[in-house]
Amino acid sequence: MTHDVLSAPERAPILARLAAAGVPVDSSGHRLAAYSFDASNYRVPPIAVVFPRTIDDVVAVVSACRETETPLISRGGGTSMAGNAIGPGIVLDFSRHMNRILSIDPATGTADVEAGVILSHLTRAAEKATAGALTFAPDPSSKNRATIGGSIGNDACGNHSVRYGRTSDHVEEIDVVTSDGARLTAAPGGLRATDPSDAFSVARAYELGEELKSLAQDNLAAFRVELSRIQRQVSGYHLANLLPENGLNVARALVGTEGTCAVVVRARMKLVPKAPSALLVCLGYADVVDAAKDIETILEFSPAAVEGIDEAIVDTMRARRGADSVLGLPHGKAFLYVDLDGENPEDVAQEATRLLERLAGNGRLVDGRAVPDTMERATLWRVREDGAGLSSRPASGGESLAGWEDSAVAPPNLAAYLTDFRRLLDEFGLTGIMYGHFGAGCMHIRITYDLRSDDGRTVFSKFSQAAARLVVRHGGSLSGEHGDGRARSALLPVMYSPQMLNAFASYRKLWDRAGILNPGSITDPDPIEDNLALEGIPDRQWRTHFELRPVEAAAAGADPWVHAVQSCIGVGRCRSDAGGVMCPSYRATGDEKDSTRGRSRVLQDMVRGARTIDEGWKSDDVREALDLCLACKACSNDCPAGVDMATYKSEFFSHYYEGRLRPLSHFSLGWLPRWLKLTTLISPLVNLVLASPLGKVVAAAGGLTTHRKMPKFASRKMLRDALAPYSNPSTPADAVLFVDSFTKGFRPEVAGAAARVMESTGRTVGCESDACCGLTWISTGQLDAAKKLMGKAVAKLDDGTDAPIVVIEPSCAAALKKDAPELLGTEAAERVSHRIRSFAEAVKEWVDGGWMPPVVPTGVTVQTHCHEYSTFGATVQRKALAAVGVANVTEASGCCGVAGNFGFEADHYDISMKVAEQALAPALAQTGPDVPVLADGFSCAMQVKQLEPDRKSLHLAELLDPKTTHHTEG
Known about the structure:
Blueprint: H1 8-20, H2 29-34, E1 48-50, H3 55-68, E2 72-75, E3 90-93, E4 101-105, E5 110-114, H4 119-129, E6 134-135, H5 148-154, H6 161-164, E7 171-177, E8 183-187, E9 190-193, H7 199-218, H8 220-226, H9 250-254, E10 263-270, E11 272-273, E12 277-285, H10 288-293, H11 295-299, E13 305-310, H12 311-321, E14 334-342, H13 345-362, E15 367-371, H14 374-385, H15 387-392, E16 401-404, H16 414-427, E17 432-437, E18 442-447, H17 454-473, H18 485-488, H19 492-495, H20 498-511, H21 550-556, H22 560-565, H23 584-589, H24 596-609, H25 613-617, H26 620-626, H27 634-638, H28 645-656, H29 665-668, H30 672-679, H31 683-691, H32 694-701, H33 716-723, E19 735-738, H34 741-746, H35 748-760, E20 765-768, H36 775-779, H37 783-797, E21 805-807, H38 810-824, H39 827-835, E22 836-838, H40 839-848, E23 859-862, H41 866-872, H42 876-884, E24 888-891, H43 909-916, H44 920-926, E25 933-934, H45 938-947, E26 953-954, H46 956-960
Parallel strand pairs: 1-3, 2-3, 19-20, 19-21, 21-22, 23-24, 23-25, 25-26
Antiparallel strand pairs: 4-5, 5-10, 6-11, 7-8, 7-10, 8-9, 12-14, 12-15, 13-14, 13-17, 16-18, 17-18
């Protein structure tokens, strides 16, 4: 059946029972939308979501669900690609509160952790506690948001599984709560009550242990013949662990049960030694089959990892994030990453040389090289880790989906399997983008299904059946890592005998007597074509201001707005706490609704569930979900699937507030360029008022925070004096300096410095200071006004030349570069866009052309504006500083927290400061007061001043200004 949100009367019993138990529960519309999805093709709305803080909370929820016969679904990071983290009842999200690392014991090499602990957090903590001697091995690509509980549920593996195996290989003991309320500890050798004084649990442990022994005894031959045949046989239950020769290891038998048997609350995990030296060897091949043929040779060298990707993923990474986002890749169309490690770097390097020689002798290797440079290695691994998102909407066009994400065969059979699999794709007219754990024979293949149409879903179903038969014919497993879930459980009869399927059903019933845990997965499954997220979307035309890739949308058979908001596939990189900038609001609150993914899911349910388009645009659930979005644009760069939430927020707000009273800040800040025309005439009076007690009254009246000191307003004369030498150039300008409203209104001295730097490069400078890009109207969703202002700016700038237009304020540069073509849709906007440079980008070009500033400091602290980061490249500031010779750069690798109007608004000040603590505040603390602070963005400069009032920040133009020398030892 296709599940949808239950009616209020149907939900009432469980909600009342939870309320009576004192368990906080959230059944709001935006919460249900966010938790209706994981990273699979499926959507199943829950009744409500609970964020347990203690095991007692979990017991109370289990009891309430049992008494009301309500399904219960356990969830960690929500990154399941098989649909095993969604369901039609109560969802328990362990990641928010039950995420403590309780202890790490270097002597025994174990860690005691709660179910919500994130894998990368455990890895860092283990290495810190053991001075780098021990680490936690499982490292799936989602390791910086996937949890221990989820990894136990799916038997997750990761990039280094060829060396370290699956999560089941690293489990010592698991503490669980059963559906009848027992608190048990599963361990090697059997079960025990977690609390020896709990009589019910003691009796239940004994009874269940005996039943498990009997189950194994009754199925000895089947368990020995059908299970544990290959390294990555994850499909079904891992009942071979119950065999006498395996010591009745109940802990390992629970791994991979996908929350269908018990609720995992805590675990003791094994740690492994960390090799002192490691070296990545990158190999290029003509195609993935040739790469697979060399796997057996590679495995002879005992690698720690053998990962593979095809060129479609690489091409998409470069198209989305720039050519330098992938460094060190050899020639080829398919690539293997081989991690070699050992006791010393010399021996590892020699082993890499021998490997390359052996592979060259095999005759299939196109190109190969060792990659000792840490930055190159980081970019290469980033491509592999973002494979799922990057392949979802490849640069070549179209979209690919999960569904056959996870098949596995023995490594010697991989080449033959891939050969036959590609033939099968051709038979069905499909294309597959391939990546995965080649060394373990496990492939992730995203396929160009059409799940929006009846015919496409029929193809999906028939292809999945044929693909299941094919992998079984090659001695493989339907799932090699992500579990069966809703994607593959119905296909298990292709892989297993009736006796084994009956054993699976019996095993589940022994654990879950109430029959409430994660229905629809593994046994008694839903059909794979039920509950597909792309089915049932009304075919409507959503009028938008932004042009949202209409050609791609038409090819996918979707409205452009629908297609845009559906770009999120749930991989959840926005839930990471390190690396990149996305998502600052989630990092501040730890709440799924404040993540890019959470917001995307609410928008996806908006286009699905709204009875009319007008009702959709007026959705309070969407408004609530977007409230803490800083519109920093970081997701447009960092999200592997290319989500651009700042654009979606602006578009939504433009419709939501149509005919409604807007927040006061939309006028005080959204109309700021208009007010600046007035303040430049009376700036002394304005500054006097704002500096007095009356200033806070004025701020509050405008919807602004009273905790932040207002900037000083500049006079028109200050700008006129700064630009006087460049007002009437004697020769035609070969470079245009665009002086934005922020620079004019608050720091005109930066305009003078920028003009002098440009002039020092030998260019004739022309200044444009009478146009506005409309940024503040865009960020507040006042798009009709924004388009008018932007259209006028484009008309002024489109002067028939190709002279670079250097924009002082990075956010205004981004608006003219990206937003102008999308909002105006004109050739003129495209022409202007191609000429736009941020100041840092221009500096790099000038240095490449032979210019150098006379002197620079040896070190700086830099806060890159998020809009510059997303539009001009994540390393644009660092490149510029390296080019001019700044040796030591401390970079605040995150959002400053102000993000235009956001940090000035009264309701957002606290979150703004929490965001600042993520990167900017630590970066400032790392460097002394004599080290220059670069903040090209005006909002970034204001946050620096808020954090350290006595520390002045500079624009890059001021740092390089030939009129002033900023030289320190850094």
